[in-house]
Amino acid sequence: MISRVVLLLLLAAGSLVDFATSNSLSLVGMHNYPVEQHRLTTRDGYVLTIFRIPYSQRGGGRKQVVFLQHGITGSSDDWLLSGPNSGLPFLLADAGFDVWLGNSRGNENGRAHKRLDPKNDTFWKFSWHEIGAYDLPAQIDYVLRKTEQAALHFVGHSQGGTAYLVMLAEHPKYNEKIMTTNLLAPLAFCSNMESKLMTLVLKVNDYMVEGEYTPGSLTQHTLSEVVCSTMIGKHLCQDMLFTLIGGKSTHINRTLIPQLENKESSGFSNRLLKHYAQVFKTGRFAKYDHGNATNLRVYGTSRPPLYELSNVAPEERVEMFYTDNDQLLSAEDAQTLGQRIAATQHHVTVRNWNHLDYVYATDVVQVIYRQLIQSIRDYKASPI
User: Fold this and answer.
1) Signal peptide position in this chain (predicted)?
2) Which of 8, 158, 236, 325 to pair with 187, CA 20 to 30 A apart?
């Protein structure tokens, strides 16, 4: 069943949109781009809402599909907050592409299930394994059916890249459905992570109980109200946020900080961090470790098996971007992944470029997006 909203004329007064409560529909519609909302159900019952920018008034007749997958704690909104001048979905639509914005289970566009209630911890028993094994295949199949295309272009940021690797490792047939791949700071190997705050979170999180992880609501109702309300406190909280998710940046669009603080967590499972913690501690890009007894029942071995990265073999080689300043993905870990999947590695040498800058930097178009869009345009010498 499709719920479609095209040309959200009621949101013409875009400056009145409340970013704390806005969603992808309003973030696209406020700039007078056509936008659609679609709902689909994964094979294991999670109901996801995804969004489409089918065209742009500036775009040509190109109808190839580009699918974007967000990072951890985020949603499809992340790609849109920067607006038409530097938001990747808008730029791709202007370049003539049919743009789809994916979402993962647990975030504001994935808090539904055919049988499970998100108020129950059972709903949250998933990691990025399920996002890659179930959510991405369901979304890609849906998009290709709706557009009547055989394959699409994929762009993933952070955990979006993790899920992509899981999907192809678990379901190699999806290589045939990918034309080009662009991974922005994909998290797979992370033993050399430099963020002291995040490594502390990972160490503690490994012992936490199952359930929903909601640092955003915690911050909003306690830390923000007590500390972040003061002038000094605002700068302190901003520094903590940026340190946690990749390092302080001189490139971040400062006008977006209020929106980022409101949307710092779109809702996700504690098991996502627990899974990253396992990779961080063991150095193995492996499936979720349930403990010896459950591992034997689920996997047939006491140790969780590695993801078969040799299965990651899309029609075109993977383009992968990394930097020296990203405190979540070190250059060493990025290079390890790049070698394992034979990716074309793009070492971003811009000073102080961090994990969030791939989406929110003021100069992201010049540093990343022009090259990314051109690589998609060049696929099989498609006419511009």
Assistant:
1) 1-22
2) 236
Is 158 designated active site?
Answer: yes
Contact 209, 203 (CB under 8 A): no
Catalytic residue (one of 289, 326, 333, 357):
326
CA distances from 93 to 65, 204, 366 (A): 10, 42, 17
- For residue 338 the two structure tokens come to 């790049």
- Locate the DSSP E strands across the chain: 2-3, 36-41, 46-53, 65-69, 98-101, 112-113, 152-157, 178-184, 212-213, 268-269, 318-323, 344-348
- pLDDT the model gives residue 12: 26
User: What is the rounded CA–CA span in Å between residue 352 and residue 159?
Assistant: 21
Spatial distance between the Cα atoms of 329 and 185, rounded to a whole number of angstroms = 6
What beta strand segments (E) does 112-262 contain? 112-113, 152-157, 178-184, 212-213
CA distance 244 to 116: 31
Catalytic site residue 324? no
Question: Any bridge partners for residue 269, and if so which?
Answer: 212
Residue 337 CB contacts under 8 Å (≥ 6 apart), including other chains: 186, 188, 189, 285, 320, 343
d(CA 225, CA 269): 25
Given the candidates 1.20.1250.20, 3.40.50.1820, 3.30.470.30, 2.40.10.340, the CATH classification of the domain at 2-381 is 3.40.50.1820
- Tell me how far apart the 2 most distant CA atoms of the chain are, in Å: 58
- Catalytic option among 38, 70, 251, 355: 355
Catalytic residue among 56, 75, 82, 158: 158
